[in-house]
Every structure is written in C-alpha cells, then in structure tokens.
Design goal:
By secondary structure, the protein is an alpha/beta fold. It contains 7 helices and 7 strands. The chain is globular and about 45 Å long.
Length: 250
C-alpha cells in the first residue's frame, strides 16, 4: 500500500512497478487507472506527489527505464521504448485510463497512448513540459541536461548506481534528440508547459499534431516543476483536466 511519505523505489526487476492505491476519496470519483512514465534518466522519484494524489482515485503504476540495474541495457530510441511499454500494459487485466509523464515521460505517454488506442479504449494523456519535436531544436545544451539529470540523484547513490544512471540518461537524451511525436490525437490530452522562451514553439509543435490539445502554463522552469511550491498548481490543472473528461472516456 502506498504511503504519502514512502519513497518511490527503483529496485524492481520489472520495468512496470505498482505503487498501489490509497483509500478512495468519494468526492473525486474512483475510476482512474494511472501509469506514469519515466523522464530521461529512467527514474520515478520525482512523481511522489503525483502518486499520492492520483492513488486516491485508483491504482497507480510507474514504468521505469531499463539500464538502472546491472545487466540491463538502456534504450536509445523512443519508438522502441513505446513499443515495449505498450506491450507491458497490454498484458494488464484492465487498460489504463490515464498515461502521464514529465519531459521524455510525457512524450512516452503520448506514443504509448497511440499504440493502445489502435486496439482498445483511448486513454487520457498528460504531458508535463514535454516537446513534440526534438529537444535538440531548443536552446539547451545536451551537457546541461545531462548534468541536471544526474544532479537530481539521491545523495545515497553509490558510484555504480551513478554510472548506470549516467549511461541511461545518455541513451534517453540520444532518443529524444531526434524523435518527432506521432501526429494525431490518441485521446484527450493536456500539455502543462513551463513559461519559457521555448513555450510558443513547444505549444505550436503539439497543436500541429492535435489542434484539440488542452495547453496550460506553469510559471517555473523545466527542472522546477516538482518543487513543493509548484505542486498545488500542477495538481489543480490536472484535476481540472480530468474533471472535464466525459464519463465515457473514463
């Protein structure tokens, strides 16, 4: 059972990790089945507040990146990851109703949603400051992104874990540097975009693919999204988006 103060472990031989659920909150409904996808680097720890919030409405799972454990190989292609992750979810007894993620995680949610919608119900998608076009088209250097990813590792990370995390981050940055999101809507979708100089290009890239996309802004930078001070607004946007979905989509 998930507890609000429980860290999100990466120690699983499976890429699909269950975070369980908390006691249902009747005022928020009880019909979500959520899957959260890893950002570049493969870890899930930044989603602690999201897990605590969404687990009141149904079970929450996370998909971590391959490469974080000895003997695993990281993936450096978005399509490869999306195919693999869609296969993991296709084996579940009930399909997910919400796919979400930050950065690369949001892009993976979008791509997996396209695959699931081809053969079943369309899940809702929430992308937190994700880009439809390669991040290499933006004004952020790869070395800067890599450094910020590794700086977020827990202080208890040992040398072997750090080396595996660095290799996984490199693979994911390679993947997102060239990937262009699949056009067309896989289902109802929300983009939470940070207010930066990249916002117009970021928004337009997604709207070219899905003109009905719901776009809302966050007054912070990419790596501030999950700071405690930013969390209430992020969760409020999320709740507003979910409340707007028709019962048939849930």
């Amino acid at each position: 059972m998930f507890a609000a103060d429980q860290p999100l472990t990466q120690n699983s031989s499976s890429l699909l990790i269950s975070f369980g659920r908390r006691r249902a909150d009747p005022s928020r409904g009880d019909s979500l089945r959520t899957v959260l996808f890893h950002p570049s680097g493969g870890r899930l720890g930044q989603y602690l507040a999201l897990v605590g919030h969404l687990s009141r409405r149904g079970p929450v799972h996370g998909v971590r990146g391959s490469g974080l454990h000895p003997g695993e190989e990281p993936h450096d292609d978005v399509h490869t990851m999306a195919d693999l992750y869609a296969g993991l979810l296709a084996d579940r007894p009930e399909p997910p109703t919400l796919l979400a993620g930050w950065s690369l995680g949001g892009l993976l949610a979008w791509e997996v949603a396209h695959r699931l919608a081809a053969d079943g119900p369309r899940p809702a998608v929430v992308m937190v400051d994700s880009f439809a076009d390669p991040w290499s088209a933006c004004h952020t250097a790869r070395d800067h992104l890599r450094r910020r990813i590794l700086d977020a590792l827990p202080d208890t990370t040992d040398a072997e874990e750090r080396a595996l995390a660095a290799r996984t981050a490199d693979a994911h940055l390679t993947a997102s540097a060239v990937h262009r999101a699949t056009p067309g809507s896989p289902g109802p979708a929300l983009l939470l975009a940070c207010e930066s100089e990249e916002l117009p290009t970021q928004r337009d890239g997604w709207l070219r693919r899905d003109p009905a996309l719901d776009v809302r802004s966050l007054p912070c930078t990419h790596f501030e999204v999950f700071d405690a001070a930013r969390t209430p607004l992020l969760l409020r946007h999320l709740d507003d988006f979910l409340a707007a979905q028709a019962p048939a989509d849930r």
